[in-house]
Amino acid sequence: MNPADPFSQPPAARLPESGRAPEAVAAYDPILTLDQNSWEGGPLGPEAVAALEAGKVLYFPHLPFNLAPSEFRLLTPAVRDPKVRNISLTGDEKLKGAVSDAATIAALEVMIARFRDQATTLIDQLLPHYKPALRAAPTSYRPAKVETRSQSWRADDRRLHVDAFPSRPNYGERILRVFTNINPEGVPRVWRIGEPFEAVARHFLPRSKPYAAWQARLLQMLRVTKRFRSEYDHLMLQLHDGMKADLDYQQDARQLTMAFPPGSTWICFSDQASHAVMSGQYMLEQTLHLKPQDQYDPQASPLAILARLTGRPLI
Ligand code: SIN
Ligand code: FE
What are the backbone dihedrals phi and psi of residue 245, each rounded to the nearest 5 degrees, phi first? Predict the structure, then answer.
């Protein structure tokens, strides 16, 4: 392996594939590794853009988020309110989900805001076409140990899924995420990455419950949803739930297990890349939203794929 090759894989970071026999997954690689080691730099070449918009994970093995010496004390689950899943910093600088003294809260805000700025710079420079169209969502800090989290099957992100939110219909808006493992003890964040979105959709659309506009109106009236749930949002939830509820699929679907080591960063459209998190602790994450028409190739979006497969507009 040539270490100067930007697409070479550090072998230690890869775990054996799970699921089907190795020959069935040999031709399938849902990860594109990039050599870039700075939060500034770009743009991505057309091949990497196409990979991202096809639902692949762009992996930067040498892109760490550096902590100040005083910030290592923030790496403890004790700073998280046990009632919430993650600590998050909203665009208007409000920190949610943290429990601690004022100085620690302020230090958390500084650390998470610095990650937000670096992650946003990274995306702006890698993907300049997105820049004027991006809408920032809160930034999260995830200090909880993944393996010991107990939750319902629907909330269990250890099962392969595509991201879809029951209460927040998004009408096809994309969910672009930047993740950095900041574990101080060498512990990787282990993901499974599943098959391409179109394969997921072909598998689960025939099993999906049909959409009913009257139900969507009822959910809106009851304030279960923040706005009217479109057929797109309904189908995305059907995929999310269908995947998570199907234990045979969880085991047998084409997939790759990937250990993202501390000091690495990865990016994907999490509404498109089938993913599951198996283990790890201490990660920072930035979400950015983008309308599918503002992608390099709008036809690659889940909205376009689902509209093509169902033969009708879904929003
Ligand atoms: C998820 O988006 O499913 C969880 C990712 C993670 O926490 O590593
Ligand atoms: Fe997810």
Answer: -80, -15
Atom of ligand 1 nearest to the CA of 157: 3
- Domain enclosing residue 273, as ranges: 31-310
pLDDT of residue 151: 84
Domain count, the chain: 1
Q: Which two tokens stand for residue 290?
A: 């983008």
The pick from 153, 157, 279 for probing ligand 1's pocket by mutation, whose C-beta has the most ligand atoms within 8 angstroms, reads 157
Asked, for residue 201, whether it belongs to a domain, the answer is: yes
> Rounded to the nearest whole angstrom, what is the distance from the C-alpha of residue 103 to the centroid of ligand 2?
31
Q: Which of 270, 271, 272, 274 to mutate to test the pocket of ligand 1 (most atoms within 8 A of CB)?
A: 270
140 lines ligand 1 (CB under 6 A): no
* pLDDT given at position 164: 98
Q: What pTM did the predictor assign?
A: 0.91
251 in Cβ contact with 192 (< 8 Å)? no
Q: Is 150 helix (H, G, I), strand (E, B) or coil?
A: coil
The mean pLDDT value for 285-299 works out to 98
* pLDDT (tens digit per residue) in 225-247: 999 999 999 999 999 999 999 99
pLDDT mean over 69-92:
95
How many other CB atoms are there within 10 angstroms of residue 192's CB atom? 23
Ligand 1 atom index nearest CA of 146: 7
* Residue 71, token pair as written in the block: 């910030």
Assess whether pLDDT exceeds 70 at residue 29: yes
3-state helix, strand, coil in the chain (%, to 5): 35, 20, 45
3-class secondary-structure state, position 135: strand
Residue 233's CATH number: 2.60.120
Query: Going by DSSP bridges, is the β-strand pair 95-96/87-89 parallel, antiparallel, or unpaired?
Result: antiparallel
Per-residue confidence (pLDDT) for residue 77, from 0 to 100: 96
Q: Report CA(277)–ligand 1 centroid distance (Å).
A: 5
